[in-house]
Task: structure prediction
Amino acid sequence: MRQLCKGNVAVIQGALLAGCQAYYGYPITPASEIAEAAAFYLPQVGGVFLQAESEVAAINMVYGAASAGQRVMTASSGPGISLMQEGLSYLAGAELPCVVVDVVRGGPGLGNIAPEQSDYFALVKGGGHGNYRNLVLAPASVQEMADLTMLAFELADRYRNPAVLLTDGFIGQMMEPLELRARITPPPEKPWAVRGTAATRKNLITSIHLEPDALEAHIRKLEAKYREAQQREPRHELYLAEDAEVLLVGYGIVSRVLRSAAEQAREQGLRVGLFRPITLWPFPAQALREAARDVRAVLVVEMSTGQMVEDVRLALREQVPVHFYSRVGGNVPLVEEVNAKMFELVETAVH
Amino acid sequence: MAEYEVVHSKSPVFYPVYERKADLQHQTHYCPGCGHGVVHKLIAETIADLDLQDRTIFVSPVGCSVFAYYYFDVGNVQAAHGRASAVATALKRACPESIVIAYQGDGDLAAIGTAEIVHAANRGEPITVFFINNAIYGMTGGQMAPTTLVGQTTTTTPWGRRPENEGFPLRVCELLATLEAPVYIERVALSDNKNIMKARKAIRKALELQRDGAGFSLVEILSPCPTIWKMTPTEARDWVAEHMIRNFPLGVFRDRKVKMPESSRPPRRTVAEVLGLADAPAEAETPATRSADAREWKIKIAGFGGQGVLLLGQILAEMGMREGKEVSWLPSYGPEMRSGSAHCHVCLSSKRIGSPLIEHPNVLVAMNEISLRKFAPSVVPGGMILYNRRTVPADVEIPNVRVFAIPASELADQLGAAKVGNIVMLGALLELTGALSSATAETVLQGTVKNSDLLALDLQALHAGRDYVRQLPLEAR
Result:
């Protein structure tokens, strides 16, 4: 059944289908509809919803619920995510699965409430202290807000690690048709959880390893998990890329603009394709190298001053020139701006 | 020969050997004379007495008791500094049958975790908090605690705690006793055997209350820290008696039943039911009216907040979806909505939609003059503008764009409700564009407007918009 749904609400609908049992959060624009939807739905299905006293408390409640083996999530936007970074480090360190959604708004500081992509470094590269990674997914539609939330729960449990949906104010606030599959996933068994039962009495959830050798062994274990995720989990989408001379790279709302830009450029005779990372960590570097093999130029577009572009450059090295275009502060790159930039690149490359 | 026998026994709630500890696995890491050892023993013996070992989850904080899980043979969760009561909150909610203990020191609970303890207590979380107050930061080497006494020397108050700089010692029991929800709050001290026996009773009472599902309980334990205080164990016990108790009076601050007022609970349903999937057809439904219109519509709707600008967009998107089109609806959001102006973008297409953000609409609905002047120049050649007035200002002239003056608010007023101006505009838009069918509009309105009077009004408004366009002279269309 197709229903017209807001991106933020779709997150919770997907979460319910993924068997989410608890939501702990704190309101913030433009993410609040996620908490509101959780408050509406979860108590009806026997789940927990609690509006915490702060994002700091919320992420630690997520830690508590995850310790008990629940499928649990929270959502926020930049300023709140900054407050949750401590908790994310502990969750990763204690190998606790959870889902965190960042509906990114303009920063730094209070910035504004319009969409940006400036939290890429904060979540893809870490943000909290220590050697850990978040698994990061970047939805580009309302449908993906639900689908990737479901995937995030699966990945979080598979790797016993936080999984993050990195989205933005526009994807969160927009409405599109959403089709839900009536397949409800039961949460997996978690024999390591602490549940106040005889069977789980010997279990311990902790991130502290006082002896250097013990901590090193723990970090190596996490590292091996992350390496496995890098092998198995990169996801991306290609559009009009087979014969492209110019390859556009963008995620989330920007990928939607780039899709229109590619179509329009082709109408004007320039063969343009799109590479859209769906996982930002692990970054689909191998697929990007293949997609960029025969192109003359790569143009990365972001709503940040240049964050993902570093991963693109790392993936492509000297293979092909990588250019960058951005709008920030809540402005979204326009199709005509992107096209102007592309034609400029092609001209420069020719002359 | 003595008349008594010395028996060294250990509670079964302690591990026989502390295998999680790297070395010296037969003893704790606590210093001689430290209060933690005593409190651990009292807690472990109480858990055993009450037969709660399998059910207990012990949340260790950051501080000297960070390694409490070396010793307690119960479920263990280690928490971030200050967050034990937040972690405990979620553990208890996940496992209501468990006995959740948050064990926190003065820095953890009364400094960095002040918000978490106040709110856990205020929600009446049915957990038990054991609050160890030794007026100093022990683990990190003797810095000031929020409970450090006035004049007390620490490494960060080298001239003694000065209230004019650091404020006064925080009295946690007194603070929490102002709240409605807690059922039991008591302060005890490890100053002598008599008080230690009182501490044992308080710990037992708190855990019994949790076992019985009573509510939030907290026991503050004034506790010696001989090493950091630079005293012998006996001097430290005396210091608790002479100095700490004077500043932190012992006693019961709260002991009462708290009955939560009746409140409405949501009905219990399945996920499929709440998401409306339970009775959904297995096959994707075919749209009632599949639109034959292959044109791409990029519609921008703008006006004042309260004119139903966002709703009009949503209705169009919903209609498009029902007619089998790809659709997107993108609003302006946040304070912009509250400060008076609002707009939204609606795309209707037969193909997957790229950017939902419309730079150049082919239809602009301007519900006020500001919006007309602001967005009219962005309309594509060949596009159209619907303006909410009888006449268009003479100086607004867009080449190759047809501008229609549709007095939607005025027509709505005549129907008796200015708020249906957006629906009048919808009727006009459908008539002028032919993008979607009027029948679909009626179906969508019937589905969304539950009040029958309002629905009748909406349908009238829809027809009024259509009829107004139909009576326009042909050259004006």
